[in-house]
Amino acid sequence: MDADDVEERRPGLTLMPEHGVDVPVWHGPDSEESGNVSAAELAALGVSLPLVERLRAWAEGWDHDPVTGSPLGQFRPGSPLTVRLARHLQSELTGHRIHLHTGDGPRPVEEWAG
């Protein structure tokens, strides 16, 4: 088994905002579980409380553009803020592969420039 095989076999978590969720992290791809990941689950996996709070703040920012009702640019996939947040999550969850949700599906954070 080479390093690429090990990389691909880690369970995935996807950073994806959604209305009405506490923490914008979801199981998948390549996860045995599905659905939203709770703050308690993230803590059990080893995610720090400050990062959980950053994830919540990011989701709230995404959810609240009073002018257009659309997410502000800094909260979209590929924005520097979003990529940094996903990379921070990756640094705390080395046993998982972190993805950013796009219109074409999840993309691993290591594929994003920034």
Task: Compile the SSE list and pairings.
Elements: H1 3-9, E1 12-15, E2 25-27, H2 39-45, H3 49-63, H4 80-92, E3 97-102, E4 105-108
Parallel strand pairs: 1-3
Antiparallel strand pairs: 1-2, 3-4
Helix pairs in contact: 3-4
How many beta-strand elements? 4
Q: What is the averaged pLDDT score?
A: 83
Query: What structural category do the secondary elements indicate?
Result: alpha+beta
- Percentage of residues in helical conformation: 25-40%
Order of helices and strands: HEEHHHEE
Estimate what percentage of residues fall within beta strands: 5-15%
Shape: globular
Give the CA-CA distance, first to last residue: 30 Å
Query: Regions with pLDDT < 50 over 5+ consecutive residues?
Result: none
* Physical arrangement of strands within the biggest beta sheet: 2-1-3-4
- Note the main sheet: 4 strands, mixed
Structure, explained:
The model has no long low-confidence stretch (mean pLDDT 83). The protein has helices spanning 3-9, 39-45, 49-63, 80-92, and strands at residues 12-15, 25-27, 97-102, 105-108. α3 (49-63) packs antiparallel against α4 (80-92). The protein is 37% helix and 15% strand. By secondary structure, the protein is an alpha+beta fold. The chain starts with a helix and ends in a 6-residue tail after the last strand. The protein is globular, with a radius of gyration of 14 Å. It has four helices and four strands, in the order αββαααββ. Strands 2-1-3-4 form a four-stranded mixed β-sheet, with helices on one face.
